[in-house]
Amino acid sequence: MAQCDVCSMPADFNNSYALTTIEVVGNKNYWSYMIDAHSFDEELLMMYVQQQAMQRTGWLICNNCSRKFTFNQESAKRYASTQTDPPGSGPADLNQVAAAAALAWKEKGGTLPSWVR
Ligand SMILES: [Zn+2]
Description:
By secondary structure, the chain is mostly helical. It has five helices and two strands; from the N terminus they run βαααβαα. The chain has a two-stranded antiparallel sheet. Helix 2 packs across helix 5 and helix 3 packs antiparallel against helix 5. It is elongated, with a radius of gyration of 14 Å. It starts with 15 loop residues before the first strand and ends in an 8-residue tail after the last helix. Zinc ion binds next to loops.
């Protein structure tokens, strides 16, 4: 059984969505979820930003997690059910991903991470 790439719960290809790296990790809501789910410090968050931004393949997103993101539902569903990487999949712009993560961090802690200039 496949897993959701956000919450790690079992995900059915026919009832999930395939998103690109930037659609997921370029979204502040993803980082808000990750910060809540893990006990990140600023350095660990930066490591995750770098690691997740490099994801080459499509992201399988369960129905529940899909509400966090903005995307074309019809095509994302089709790419998931055919297990195809959506167009635009691959490594995302690191600055854009870091900005989304920094914003989520600031909302939780009141300050931007120290690695934001
Ligand atoms: Zn999920």
